[in-house]
């Protein structure tokens, strides 16, 4: 049977996560501006961007901002770690505010993810931050909690990880490549989104482009960002190219023409049904991204 929309199988689960903009919860002006920006997700931050004495007031501001909404965007709340003085109150605020996602920092065990998921309920997705040596060593176990908890993504905290490793955090991130790759593999094994950490040099546009391209080549779905000026590069480099979209449409058309075929030649190259699944994903992504 011909499909009116051949991409329906992946459209229902697809969510654009190319550009994930951190916004301090205490910065009302930045929160207002974020509603107009072309980022895919806004991460309202209660953790690293705030001094301890500012966290309580920022928590109230975060709840108000999330309730007001960020139309057309995934809305996430980054809470403080559960073993800090602010963690429990942050989770209660998340339940009250109802974001799409809670970004959970300092995850090192699967038990942390399960406990938080039970505390906030299955309607709120969790993005677990992989930002320590312990987390990298147990990344597959952490990812496996997707079977019993509302885990949706693994988000690498590259700065914290590099600090603990005492390695040099270069644009190419050579010292982190193994950890980055392990995170992508674990995420894909459990149908999670792998999300890259931020690029902190706001003056180095070429470095940002290089790092986005490298992360996309590794298999990441998107990148966390610390400034609106980084959004366009992330959206562009984590999107399929026009050539890739054309390939996807050609593959879909070929299998629609021969629905019983297992292998076809498309543009002179052997193309299997595993390529059809990838083509459907790319075409659905392009359709959603406009």
Q: How would you describe this structure in keywords?
A:
290 residues, alpha/beta, TIM Barrel, 2 domains, eight-stranded parallel beta barrel, two-stranded antiparallel ribbon, 13 helices, 10 strands, 46% helix, disordered N terminus
How would you describe the overall organization of this protein?
The protein is an alpha/beta fold and 290 residues long. The protein folds into two domains: 19-237, TIM Barrel, CATH 3.20.20; 242-289, no CATH class. It contains 13 helices and ten strands. The strands form two sheets. The protein has an eight-stranded parallel beta barrel, surrounded by six helices. Strand 1, helix 2 (28-34) and strand 2 form a beta-alpha-beta unit. The two termini are 27 Å apart.
In short:
The protein is of the alpha/beta class and 290 residues long.
What's the layout of helices and strands?
Layout: H1 8-11, E1 19-24, H2 28-34, E2 41-45, H3 55-68, E3 74-78, H4 87-97, E4 101-104, H5 110-120, E5 125-130, H6 133-137, H7 139-143, E6 151-156, H8 158-165, H9 177-189, E7 193-196, H10 205-218, E8 222-225, H11 231-237, H12 242-257, E9 263-266, E10 269-272, H13 273-289
Parallel strand pairs: 1-2, 1-8, 2-3, 3-4, 4-5, 5-6, 6-7, 7-8
Antiparallel strand pairs: 9-10
Helix pairs in contact: 3-4, 12-13
């Amino acid at each position: 049977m011909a499909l009116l929309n051949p991409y329906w199988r992946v459209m229902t689960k697809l969510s654009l996560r190319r550009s994930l903009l951190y916004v301090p919860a205490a910065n009302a002006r930045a929160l207002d501006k974020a509603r107009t920006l072309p980022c895919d997700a806004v991460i309202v931050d209660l953790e690293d961007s705030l001094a301890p004495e500012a966290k309580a007031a920022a928590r109230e501001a975060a709840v108000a901002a999330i309730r007001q909404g960020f139309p057309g965007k995934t809305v996430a709340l980054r809470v403080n770690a559960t073993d800090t003085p602010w963690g429990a109150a942050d989770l209660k605020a998340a339940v009250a505010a109802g974001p799409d996602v809670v970004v959970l920092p300092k995850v090192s065990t699967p038990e942390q993810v399960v406990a938080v998921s039970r505390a906030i309920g299955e309607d709120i997705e969790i993005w677990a931050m992989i930002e320590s040596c312990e987390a990298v060593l147990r990344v597959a176990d952490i990812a496996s909690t997707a079977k019993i908890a509302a885990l949706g993504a693994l988000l690498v905290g590259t700065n914290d990880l590099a600090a603990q490793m005492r390695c040099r955090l270069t644009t190419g991130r050579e010292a982190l490549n193994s950890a980055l790759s392990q995170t992508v593999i674990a995420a894909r094994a459990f149908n999670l989104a792998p999300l890259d950490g931020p690029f902190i040099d706001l003056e180095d546009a070429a470095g940002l482009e290089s790092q986005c391209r490298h992360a996309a080549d590794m298999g990441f779905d998107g990148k966390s960002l610390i400034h609106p000026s980084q959004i366009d590069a992330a959206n562009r480099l984590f999107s399929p190219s026009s050539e890739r979209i054309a390939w996807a449409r050609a593959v879909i058309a070929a299998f629609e023409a021969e629905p019983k075929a297992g292998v076809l030649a498309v543009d002179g190259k052997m193309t299997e049904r595993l390529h059809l699944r990838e083509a459907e994903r790319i075409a659905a992504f392009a359709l959603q991204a406009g």
